[in-house]
Design goal:
Chain lengths: 434, 318, 170
């Protein structure tokens, strides 16, 4: 049997296992392991299993995941999340879906703190999902908005997506970061628009709250002051050069613990159970990340991305059609693959073609990162949806995927806007760096 | 159908997997992989070739490359002893300030390897190339380094213990930061600078955020290896073995080291052309002020390892 | 018999979770000490080494309890579509696949640990031996696999135990 056939069968088996509710991580580990054993040998499959999982478990970049979860958990235990959403409710709660829109803004702010979509979705999920439930928001809206909003993490700088793209294709990280700013804001605006339209159409999705007086607003805002100041201090510390984005996660967690204890809202027992819960969430998230890293070498060994890519770029159609097909490929691949793995496998084929056509590589980078974001929320393998599921255990995955659909369409529209008007992404890098 | 499948798998069986954790555009392609492909092509007429996996397709990151070759995930790979320094204490003598002198770096490493002093640090593999980078330099943002005084109190990123000792000896604060965060760390001022070779400036896009570079400082250099799984080598045809043997060792190492030096030159030229960089080249007298503080670190490290023999063999003094 | 096995399994799972939680808290403290110390030019030597290994401890330490609390995520989109018999089969197969995965992982990690000892691998600044943490991952993976095997047995006998005792007693 050819390598490509084995690769194809492997992906089919993966889909079947997922459909039959084998946990995502087990299925990906299993298919990756057996696939590598067939395409290469079982010794190397064993080796990759051990080395990939240990490397990821000890990765300095991924340390942010448990730290931010801890921060979110402690913020919830100490009531800081509640007071944050009380404030948001007092200020925008009288608008339909106001809290969901506020969550989008929160995700945008968090994206300025973290380069990872996983960390964004986890932290915002921990902080906001229980709160939106408290105010009777539909679970499809609340989970959908967090899963989609979390993806802003790789579009708004700093972004691991842009760093990997930059290093793979030798482009400027600074230009890419700048190029992500306006599209990031545009996408956040599109998400808010989506929330508003959804709630206009179905008011029960995000029921409007009572109007509040200025005084009530002020009092609620004061209650949220601790968590708001901690977040601002943490962001300020990164841009002020006091600590790295990774360390910021520990600083944020430390500050929340410190302030919570100081205000008498956090007992040792409360801290311990928040930490223990963080460990559980981290383990389930990291297991998926680790298993996805085994699918990556499996597909590389099958040569599928290479063959498919070569076929695609040699089609006798105009450049714009090829560009569209490439973006479509990313959206489709994103349904199955870990996003960043996808870049490593495909960029070496697609990038030279794009440059040959005379397209701007920075602009293409923004388009690619946008499609990666779509892959994070598209079924069946949508990392951010899994993340939200790990926080909202009682919400069926199918409902989260349903909730994500409108936001997916908003992303598609944003992608179309940036394809049609490259200036949206290029104006900042081209005016600020020459 | 069947016949095609058979030939396909037969062809695949004679492909050696070379795994690289960086993109294909990296210097390793020109310095090591291309010469290997060419040697095999000429020696075997295409019967044995190389399947080149880049960008970490066969497993990410530099840390586990050696392990992956020993376990046969890849037949060949390359890496930096400095990432797993506990495995390579003697090899890394070659990185210390003041050890290299004017000779090509690969000569130092092969002098020691051929004398049987480094073999224990490379179990399970056949080293194909061992080489040294261009000299390390100070890569700084908003700080110009001309004297040891200028380093005092600055936060400098280091990747290993000995580099940390060197920075501490100069009065700086050694800081540990993952390579992927260097760009952000320099930009925000989390670190004032770092010490590494010129070619790495291009690899991590550091020229976008750094603006001052100091050359001719005794800061040592970085060592590299390219290795091949021993069993994979033993299983090769006689022609393929001969082709590998013809290039492995000093020949391939020279090719790698030359490519690194060319890359460093090119990066330096482009930094000069950019115009917004300060490039400081210390005179030998200015450099001596650094040597006074730094060379005792080298002596101490060699003494602690009991590696005087390795040091002298590397320098051709035995 | 089975309830005795579960009692011991739950003890091991709880212990593994405690070690993991300590790992997380150690990680937070170490990074904070390093950040503060750096401002006074006294960074914590090896902070990165410790926080990385603390992370390994936490990730593997949490595996068993995550399974026990059904925190490992599955795609439940077709749950309503399939007949009950299929769902029943899934309840048996899923933990078996999981147990196989974790046993293979344990075996792979065991081999990797032997290799780490041969190559003398350790963290880069304060040289914490890598094999220690790999052996720890082996133990924690085996605990996870054992719990999954018990879960499969329960499902085969048709009396799935969904409650985690240590958790309900908490
Ligand atoms: Na971000
Ligand atoms: Na997806």
């Amino acid at each position: 049997m050819s390598d490509i056939a084995i690769g194809g069968i492997g992906m089919a088996v993966l889909l079947a296992m997922l459909a039959f509710r084998i946990p995502v991580a087990f299925a990906m580990f299993f298919v990756g392991f057996v696939g590598i054993s067939l395409l290469h040998n079982s010794a190397s499959a064993m080796s990759l299993l051990a080395s990939e999982s240990f490397t990821l478990a000890s990765s300095q970049e991924l340390v942010v995941i448990p730290l931010f979860i801890l921060m979110g958990n402690v913020a919830t235990v100490t009531g800081m999340s509640r007071r944050l959403y009380d404030a948001a409710y007092a200020i925008v709660g009288s608008f339909r879906g106001g809290l969901a829109s506020a969550t989008v803004i929160g995700c945008g702010g968090f994206a300025a703190l973290s380069g990872s979509s996983v960390a964004s979705a986890l932290t915002m999920g921990k902080v906001s999902l229980g709160e939106m439930k408290r105010f009777n928001y539909d679970e499809r809206l609340s989970t959908g908005v967090v899963a989609a909003g979390g993806t802003l993490g790789i579009l708004i700088p700093p972004s691991t997506g842009f760093v990997i793209y930059a290093i793979l294709v030798e482009q400027s990280i600074g230009r890419l970061f700048l190029a992500g700013v306006l599209p990031g804001l545009l996408l956040a605006a599109m998400f808010i628009l989506t929330v508003t339209m959804l709630c206009y159409w179905k008011p029960e999705f995000g029921p409007a709250g009572p109007k509040t007086s200025l005084r009530q607003k002020g009092r609620a805002f004061l209650g949220a002051a601790p968590i708001v100041s901690i977040t601002l201090l943490t962001i300020g510390g990164i841009y002020g050069g006091f600590f790295s984005p990774v360390e910021a996660a520990a600083v944020g967690a430390g500050l929340v613990i410190f302030v919570g204890a100081l205000m008498g809202h956090l007992s040792l027992k409360g801290l311990w159970s928040a930490a223990r819960e963080s460990v559980v969430t981290t383990a389930s998230v990291m297991l998926i990340v680790m298993s996805a890293s085994l699918i990556n070498p499996f597909l590389a060994l099958s040569h599928i991305p290479q063959v498919a890519g070569d076929f695609l770029v040699n089609l006798p159609v105009p450049p714009l059609a090829i560009l569209m097909l490439i973006l479509l490929t990313y959206v489709v691949l994103g349904c199955f693959l870990d996003s960043l793995a996808m870049l490593v496998l495909t960029l070496p084929i697609f990038f030279p073609v794009i440059v040959n056509f005379g397209y701007d590589p920075i602009w293409f980078g923004v388009l690619v990162v946008l499609t990666l974001e779509m892959g994070l929320i598209s079924p069946p393998v949508g990392m951010n949806v899994f993340i939200v599921k790990s926080v909202a255990k009682d919400v069926p995955l199918g409902r989260i995927f349903a909730g994500v659909i409108p936001f997916f369409l908003a992303m598609l529209l944003t992608l179309a806007i940036i394809v049609a008007f490259p200036q949206v992404s290029l104006i900042l890098p081209n005016t600020m760096i020459n | 159908g069947v016949a095609a499948a058979v030939t396909f798998s037969a062809a695949a069986a004679d492909s050696l997997k070379f795994a690289s954790w960086v993109p294909a555009a990296h210097t390793i392609t020109e310095g090591v992989v291309d010469p290997l492909i060419k040697a095999l092509e000429e020696g075997t007429g295409g019967a044995t070739d190389i399947d080149y996996f880049t960008g970490g397709e066969l497993g990410a990151g530099p840390l586990e490359q050696y392990v992956r070759v020993v376990q046969g995930v890849a037949d060949m790979s390359w890496g930096l002893p400095g990432y797993t320094s506990s495995q390579f204490p003697k090899t890394m003598i070659s990185e210390l300030p003041g050890v290299k002198g004017d000779k090509p770096g690969y000569e130092l490493l092969w002098n020691a390897y051929d004398a049987g002093l480094l073999e224990k640090e490379f179990p399970g593999v056949k080293p194909l190339a061992l080489w040294l980078s261009e000299p390390n330099v100070f890569i700084m943002k908003d700080h110009e380094i001309r004297t040891p005084e200028d380093v005092k109190g600055l936060k400098i990123r280091v990747s290993g213990t000995i580099a940390g000792d060197v920075i501490a000896a100069l009065g700086g604060t050694p800081v540990q930061i993952p390579a992927g965060e260097l760009y952000n760390a320099l930009q925000t001022g989390l670190i004032d600078g770092l010490v590494t070779g010129t070619s790495a400036i291009g690899d991590f896009k550091l020229d976008e955020v750094a603006n001052s570079y100091t050359y001719n400082v005794p800061l040592g250099q970085i060592s590299f290896y390219t290795i091949m799984n021993q069993a994979a080598y033993d299983g090769l045809s006689a022609e393929a073995k001969a082709a590998i043997d013809g290039i492995a060792g000093r020949t391939l190492s020279k090719s790698a080291e030359d490519a690194w030096n060319r890359k460093a030159e090119a990066v330096l030229e482009s930094m000069k052309a950019a115009g917004d960089n300060t490039i400081i080249v210390l005179s030998d007298e200015e450099s001596a002020a650094f040597e006074e503080l730094v060379l005792p670190v080298t002596d101490k490290a060699i003494g602690q390892l009991g590696a005087e023999e390795v040091y002298k063999t590397m320098r051709g003094e035995m | 018999m089975r309830s005795l096995l579960w009692k011991w399994a739950d003890r091991l799972i709880g212990l593994s979770a405690i070690v993991g939680t300590i790992g997380l808290l150690v990680g937070v403290v170490v990074v904070l000490v390093d950040v503060v110390g750096r401002e006074f030019h006294m960074p914590l030597t090896g902070a990165q080494d410790i926080s990385q290994m603390a992370m390994v401890t936490m990730v593997f330490g949490g595996m068993a309890i995550a399974d026990r609390l059904s925190a490992h995520i599955a795609v439940d989109v077709f749950e309503g579509v399939f007949p009950p018999v299929i769902n029943r089969v899934t309840q048996i197969i899923a933990p078996i696949v999981g147990a196989v995965v974790f046993l293979i992982l344990a075996r792979a990690m065991w081999e990797a640990a032997a290799l780490s000892r041969m190559l003398n691998l350790a963290t880069n600044i304060i040289f914490l031996p890598k094999a220690w943490f790999q052996y720890m991952a082996v133990v924690m993976s085996v605990i996870t696999a054992l719990a999954m095997i018990l879960r499969a047995v329960d499902a085969i006998l048709g009396c799935p135990r969904s409650e985690y005792e240590a958790d309900t007693k908490r």
